[in-house]
Design a protein that fits this description.
This protein folds into two domains: 66 residues, no CATH class; 171 residues, Glutaredoxin, CATH 3.40.30.10. The longest helix has 21 residues. The N terminus is likely disordered. The protein is an alpha+beta fold and 240 residues long. It has twelve helices and five strands. It has a five-stranded mixed beta sheet, sandwiched between helices. Helix 5 links the parallel strand 2 and strand 3.
Length: 240
């Protein structure tokens, strides 16, 4: 509201010399205008903060719009749930992210609770790989497991596990009944590596994606593991 008032004030000040000088503002008028605006902003510095917040929000919306098609229509994504579901949940995650591990139960329970109304798009985003050296490989394992029809089983097992080295991944694969030899071969497929790289590049274009997990539900989004907020977002989308 104050930002609007400031703009209105500036417009009013500009209108006077424009009318009195036939559309021209001389140096004296300009200095007077600048003085009025400066004094107002110094007395109300929160206006600048409000403007910066709105600017950031606008840039966030623009960045999301620029990759919206890739977010919702990428054919290489793993998507679980009916195509005509009322609500689509998108999650960007890393298997070594402790906050991602905290929201896995919420996501699985949501899918089970709303089998006809919710579909989930899983976005493998191994942003911690530089530190862990295992995040990218875990993402490859999950995508390879998808080729054997066991993505969700592998996904949840990886989220529950610690120390995701090659031996641990192989152990998980055996536990959930995967063909381990096939899994290892598929993990080396350049197409899987290219998909992960493309997702990482897209993630860099999303200004509000400051870490994992990053969820999108309808027109709302959140970075972090705030389950209460996720439930509110889901409820809003369901009502819509």
């Amino acid at each position: 509201m104050k930002l609007y008032k400031t703009a209105l004030l500036a417009a009013s000040v500009l209108a006077f010399p424009a009318c009195s000088q036939a559309g021209q503002v001389n140096t004296q008028d300009k200095e007077a205008i600048e003085k009025i605006v400066y004094e107002y902003l110094m007395e109300n510095p929160e206006v600048v903060q409000e403007a910066l917040i709105e600017l950031e929000a606008k840039q966030d919306r623009e960045s999301l719009a620029s990759v919206k098609s890739s977010i919702y229509n990428e054919p290489r994504d793993v998507v679980l749930g009916p195509a005509d579901a009322k609500v689509t949940i998108v999650e960007f995650f890393d298997y070594n992210c402790s906050y991602c591990k905290r929201t896995t139960d919420w996501l699985v329970e949501t899918m089970e609770k709303h089998p006809k109304d919710v579909r989930v798009i899983f976005k493998e985003l191994p942003i911690l790989d530089r530190q862990t050296k295992t995040s990218r490989n875990a993402a490859k394992a999950a995508l390879a497991a998808h080729r054997q029809g066991k993505y969700l089983e592998m996904h949840t097992a990886l989220m529950e596990a610690r120390g995701l080295n090659d031996d641990r991944i192989e152990e998980i694969a055996k536990d959930i009944g995967l063909n381990v030899a096939r899994l290892k071969g598929d993990m080396q497929d350049p197409e899987i590596a290219a998909y992960i790289e493309d997702t990482l590049i897209m993630g860099q274009k999303l200004r509000p994606l400051t870490g994992t997990p990053f969820f999108m539900i309808g027109d709302e989004y959140i970075a972090g593991a705030n389950v209460n907020r996720l439930n509110d977002m889901l409820a809003n989308a369901m009502r819509g």
